[in-house]
Amino acid sequence: MILNRSTLFSVRTLFLAFIQLPIIEYLDETYKMPRLLPDNPYQRYQARMISEIIASGIQPLQNISVLKRVGEDKKVEWAPVEKALEESAGHFCVGNQLSIADCCLIPQLYHARRWKIDLTKYLLIPSIEERLNSIEAFKVAHPNQQPDCPEKEKA
Length: 155
Fold this sequence. Notes:
By secondary structure, the protein is mostly helical. The protein has a domain at 38-144: Glutathione S-transferase Yfyf (Class Pi), Chain A, domain 2 (Up-down Bundle), CATH 1.20.1050. Helices cover 50% and strands 5% of the residues. It has a two-stranded antiparallel sheet. Helix 2 packs parallel to helix 5. It is globular. The model has no long low-confidence stretch (mean pLDDT 81).
């Protein structure tokens, strides 16, 4: 990790940062903002567990080069996320506050839709997704809302 100071602001910037979960934890611990890791130790564990299931168990399988090697059937393994949510979910992935798990869930659901993965057998995943997609920060972060999104993909 290479830390530097921004030339415009007195805010630390992180360069060469490409591993999602440590970046989120670093920002959560460094800046005074709504926390993404719950204060309660057990809920913090749940948030990290769900994030790790998504980041290590689902995300790699939704990359085209990996799918070619492991097969189409591997791209649909969302049951561990649903099972974890049965223990932890409230309004969001872990209780009623946004967490690191919510930040991991939404991008992977976007990819699941691109790969036409059937999520109708799950109850909690789509209901949490719907609530998260109503939050402005998630709306503006959506890939279809980015300046470099191809016109044919904009919604």
